[in-house]
Design goal:
homodimer, five-stranded mixed beta barrel, 30 strands, 35% strand
């Protein structure tokens, strides 16, 4: 099975654990196989492998997510990076041209496209296999998975099938309805549209070329920013005549709000949390290293991270977005391809950060115009490169880098560094990258 | 008026804002005169001065509180430091011998003794003046202030007066009663015992010498640890025959729990807090520099500091103590005589701290056996002394101090330093103090 996972979304609704660089699909809060925690993307990947160990998975995503995907799935998946975010039609077309031109996938091969963040049962992935089979048998040009509704929801689009069979011809699509209309849809056997499609790779390329002017993947990638934002539903599915839908009646949850997310957690707490015996139906996630004490909390969601603290009634937690949008703040924690950083302290003229580099990784060779930096190595071993000079580093070593000094550090073992930035204009924009000196092959 | 303020108490009940080094009386959360915030001790001192601008105030306290008192009240009050905590009788006797031997207060002078943390009206302090006057007129040897009860409380001791007059002879004292007995007391016109007494200084010394074997203040101070823990009520008041009580019927609140404390706050929030419109009767205090978002919170107390996070139903918040006693943790913030420190990060082999020194102040000259330290100056100017060598310091300067290196720093202007400690055994015990080199008169 060729599968394209669409990994989009900002992190507003699961604030303060998710943010612009850490979307909800990367939060390791779901119960994993070995008693540990796994993220949505780790769970989905594990479920795909359980159904089809030879499945080839491509994640279509923005560049901000690449580090998290690599950190969580390593090189097990291919990543098709969108230069900027568009809607699903351009994203799927880019992934299709990536599969053909970069991965050399034959055009007749069936491809399944689905979002990266549904919380579903094993049978969902068995049905993806069925979708691919229906495509390869030429039952239709495009095959959809429709979710059996459990209530008349106003927040999903609907697929209206021709009948109530397990596999049906699609009559039409409907936008998110009001409650009364949703009830009517349910009476007619309508299905939720969960954005899951299967077709041949060549079909995707044909639709792409019909609507977008591009030669191949490289050309498409370069002009990606010019594409208009349009969904695959609107651009393709709703116009297709040869269209089937397969019914899926298992669990299908969108863990997009704290309320739904908490239902998927194994216990009621993660991290340093004490709930006294008067608490009821309360979920607490604490990423900080300080204790959280909850007393008499009923039906609440509490989420604590370096970015902020949410204390909400479960029902209210669905309405978080506008409040979070008003908050502009320093991102306090981020996973990077080379490791992670945690902001410890922000003052007017200084910032203190803990940087952790994974073994074998290093930073870009760079300098800053407006700030001095000081590294104190607190753990691990490695090698720094400072204005062309190489220095071994170990715990207790200190390196001062005045403004303009070119610097990087490379980790032999997991390397922890406290970085103090001092200057009047501290910003992520003040970073000049430099080529490594000749003969230096690190990184 | 000579007044002794008893400043005791650990910080358990107002966790996580109060802790072992920051008792509740120092939390700046009450509305102050100039639109800012003031602490209980600042408020009480201001109220005393309003009634008697010439009042002489002595705070009897443990050594952990000295820095906070100096930081909040400067040299406006005298401080009598108990070498270790005993009960109120030894504390009052020590303060009495301090007043006579150190402050040279005449023995015939009336002294008023009261706790530092009642939240009361202006008239309370006018009545303290009245107590002192009754003592100087020899109306009785010991005069008490009794609080007119507002409900049959089981958590206070009671004073049973001979009649219902404004000033009465005391019939007897009663321990904390059960509810039924408390109701009975109220019917008889009993008063709450708030631990407020007035008598001549000589009376205190006479009672001290009757029960404690000591010569003068120095001798008492040195043997203070041997004193048995006994309250002034039990040791003195309950045995005194010449005893009056004066009725006080104004507000008298013990802001000892979050529930009562929140009632004295001016608004419902302090710090970076958003309460959405569905929150009701909820108070939030946030000392961290990250946003707190509350949605749908009803009748709650939320308190956030570097030490931890409390999220509690208001009524439940009175039962916090046993939970807090189980939490043993690094103290994350402390005021010191020289400034303050904030712990930013604790790892297995390192700790990162922000140190702020007030102008004109310095640290002890010291060294550590088991850890290296690195200072990065992030703000202000001063002078460091490193193994006998003096160095001017300014923002961006870095000083490395390997284990064994003697060091201190002195602030000319407010000086901010990020200190990184690196070593396997980081503890407050690993600190060796050294005399300053000859000819160095700093500190």
């Amino acid at each position: 099975m060729q599968i394209i996972l669409l990994s989009g979304g900002s992190g507003k609704r699961l604030w303060p654990l998710s943010n612009d660089v850490r979307s909800k699909q990367f939060l390791k809060m779901l119960p994993g196989r070995d008693g540990g925690q796994e993220s949505m993307i780790m769970r989905v990947y594990r479920q795909i492998m359980a159904v089809d160990p030879k499945a080839s998975v491509t994640v279509a995503t923005g560049k901000k997510q690449v580090s998290s995907i690599v950190n969580q799935l390593g090189d097990k998946v291919k990543i098709c990076v969108e230069p900027e975010r568009r809607d699903t039609f351009p994203a799927i077309c880019l992934a299709a041209s990536y599969l053909r031109d970069v991965q050399k996938v034959p055009e007749e091969e069936p491809v399944v496209i689905c979002p990266v963040d549904p919380y579903v049962e094993h049978t969902y992935f068995q049905m993806l296999n069925q979708l691919a089979r229906l495509v390869s048998e030429d039952s239709a040009r495009l095959v959809l998975l429709g979710m059996e509704p459990t209530y008349p929801s106003e927040k999903y689009g609907y697929i209206i099938p021709a009948d109530r069979e397990q596999i049906s011809r699609v009559e039409t699509f409907r936008e998110k309805p009001d409650l009364e209309t949703a009830r009517e849809y349910l009476r007619c056997g309508a299905l939720w549209n969960g954005g899951v499609f299967a077709c041949r790779l060549g079909y995707l390329l044909e639709k792409a070329h019909e609507q977008i002017d591009f030669e191949g993947y490289g050309d498409f990638f370069e002009n990606y920013g010019k594409q208009k934002k349009i969904s695959f539903d609107y651009a393709v599915a709703e116009r297709e005549e040869s269209l089937l839908v397969v019914r899926y009646s298992g669990d299908w949850k969108d863990l997009g709000t704290w309320n739904t997310f908490s239902e998927a957690m194994e216990g009621s707490t993660l991290g340093r949390v004490t709930l006294n015996e008067t608490c009821e139906n309360t979920h607490v996630v604490n990423e900080l290293n300080v204790p959280v004490l909850c007393m008499g909390c009923k039906n609440m969601i509490i989420a604590v991270s370096g970015d902020g603290i949410l204390i909400s009634d479960k029902e209210q937690s669905s309405y978080i977005k506008p409040y979070v949008e008003e908050m502009t703040g320093q991102i306090m924690y981020a996973e990077k391809s080379w490791g992670s950083f945690t902001v410890l302290d922000v003052q007017e003229d200084s910032m203190t950060i803990r940087v952790v580099l994974m073994p074998g990784h290093g930073l870009h060779y760079h300098s800053h115009e407006h700030r001095d930096e000081v590294w104190t190595v607190t753990g691990g071993e490695g090698e720094a490169l400072i204005d062309g000079r190489r220095l071994p580093v170990k715990p207790g070593d200190v390196i001062s880098m005045p403004a303009g000094c070119k610097h990087t550090v490379y980790a032999r073992t997991e390397l922890s560094v406290i970085e103090v930035q001092v200057g009047r204009e501290i910003s992520v924009e003040d970073k000049q990258k430099h080529p490594l000196p000749e003969g230096d092959g690190k990184q």
